[in-house]
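[09:14] KT: can someone run the structure on this one? pasting the chain below
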Amino acid sequence: MMNFNISHANYHSFILTGIPGMPDKNPWMAFALGFLYTLTLLGNGTILAVTKVDQSLHEPMYYFLSILALTDVSLSMSTLPTMLSIFWFNAPEIAFDACITQMFFIHGFGVVESGVLVSMAFDRFVAIRNPLRYVSILTQGVIAKIGITVLARAVCVVFPVPFLIKRLPFCHSNVLSHPYCLHQDAMRLACASTRINSLYGLIIVIFTLGWDALIILFSHVLILQTVLGIASRAERFKTLNTCLSHICAVLLFYVPLIGVTMVHRFGKHLSPVVHTLMANIYLLLPPVMNPIVYSVKTKQIRRRIIQVFQRKV
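[09:31] RB: done, structure tokens below
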């Protein structure tokens, strides 16, 4: 499990943590997690299937929604293997390279989701600001290029993270705080300076997630400005209602993200249960809730889902 030399032990694996201090609760957590993952797959799978089958949903808004659903599924699948190994099979050990790989995908898909939310904000801005040219501006080719750009940005931004972690020696402990691998969690176990890791992590947060949040905020300010210029009160409400689902998706992603970042940086005195709870909410809540929000708030998707169930009945 570890190699010893004269100066220190350098671990070749990490131990993941289920519920800190409450290992007897892990079996109960297993069923809750199984339900959440099932709900994630069913919800996002339904969004993808409905969008593909219904020709009336072959519009830019629903293409971006499909990309969001794919991202949510991918993010959930990144955490699923270690979640199952801990809560279902009581096997908390993970190899160092496997941990780094999982770390790359979790952080990568997190950046992708942020980029997709920016793309969806741009979609709503074009639809409301210039409705007559909406479809001609956001063609399938343009949407594909946006998707590739979002993915490429995430890969480039997160690519250095595994190398920054791999260069560090780990000798104090190999027990992580969560049931999956995060950069900030593994970094704190190193017995060498982590200043470069901390600085790069801060740069990622500011210039990707932080910048994305500002763009989304600015786009909605412009949308609100446009909506207030509409004479009819009913039309203003109808137009704003088309943005409500996106606003909910943004809040579901950024509020837990800010929470887990604050807890990791300034909440060292807090209970380990708080750290675990915040990290789990950040990774599990958006993939579960996004399909529900869009199904409830988007009339076209809701109608199509109801039609599918009526046929089965």
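[09:33] KT: thanks! Residues 251 and 286 are 9 Å apart (CA to CA).
[09:34] RB: yep, looked fine to me
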